[in-house]
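pinging the channel bc i need a second pair of eyes. not urgent but kinda urgent?? the chain im working w is below, pasted from the shared doc
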Amino acid sequence: MRDATPIKLLLVESGRAVGGTERVVWELATRLPEARFDVRAWLSDDPGVDELAAALEQADVGVDRVAEVESRWDWKGMFVTWSRLRALKPDLVHIHHVWPAADRYLSMVARAAGVSHVVVTEHIMGESHSRGQRALKRDELKNADAVTAVTGAIVDTLVRDYGIERSLVRVIPNGADLPDEEREMPLARRWRERFLATPVRPLWVVVGRLEEQKGHDLLFEALVPLLRQGLDFTLAVAGDGSRRSWLEQRALSLGLSPRVQFVGQLDDVGPLLAAADGVILPSRWEGLPLVLLEAMARGRAIVATAVGGVADALEDGVTGTLVPPNDVGALAAALENLHRRADRAWRLGQIAAEVARDRYSWHAVVGEFESVYDEVLGLATVTPEGPAAARESSGREGRGR
């Protein structure tokens, strides 16, 4: 039995821009019950997560900006991280991996600093690692007290590439907020008016970081055959990133202007998704993108590449359309079908909304992680009711933010 002192939980995430992984950190930091958890977050020192850091601090969550240890030769970085962990003395460190090779030294440093419990969550599937990175990752996963992944597809890679026992990895998917239609619909109408969207001139939306992973360049190439066939549309590109200028020039060179419009980073993509006739996810690789779940929750027609956890959440021909990754021809055909058979795509979206409501919610996600923490700390039976009671307690005693 543990005394009533809150569990000191350190959430660590090294992303350099706000995306799905950062959203999970936010939900955990603000939804876990204060009566049970004293939560602190370590974020990258990159300006791309400044807004998240400020929001967490405003929500009374302690935040440190800690540079990632990227090399075994970075003795100074390791010492600084070790010193901070020694001073903080967390009961449990929960490391969220947003890039394939990120933060692989942190678990080792945490153990050296006397941290007794480490949980690792894999959010993404990516390109292969170097031999040294693979060894670090294998050691980290095998020595972690618990490993979770956002999709079954990620679990498959951990089993195949790193020899992790499948039974030791728990799948905890991302969640999605149910849409607030009363608030979103007036804003959605403004988006449609802005782009002059009509049934014959649909508004399509792609949301995500403007990086190679997200496949915007493939989408642009797939739009060219539609123009040749005389199909009209507008594509709203929401997000920012290092490839924005290049993508803007690429759209111009392909003759897609003014049909492709860059709207920048949005604090709330819900109204834009609600305004869309179709949501497109052309990613080269993924974990389980939040925008997919958010589009499903709003009943949008979806065309996506079958990568990572996308195929776990979206069933081809039932809740949306899946195409092979890096296949411009298949993507173009799916978009043509989306344009010409909008009624069928709409019906698939309605089924997707039912699936999203039934399977994905942030309340359930946080409850699952709380259960993992209890098991790792030996608190699963701290009360006769067990973890289920703790999750109920979360709803009663949570931060309410």
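so Residues 342-359 form the longest helix (18 residues). and Confidence is low (pLDDT under 50) at residues 381-401. — does that match what u expected or am i reading it wrong
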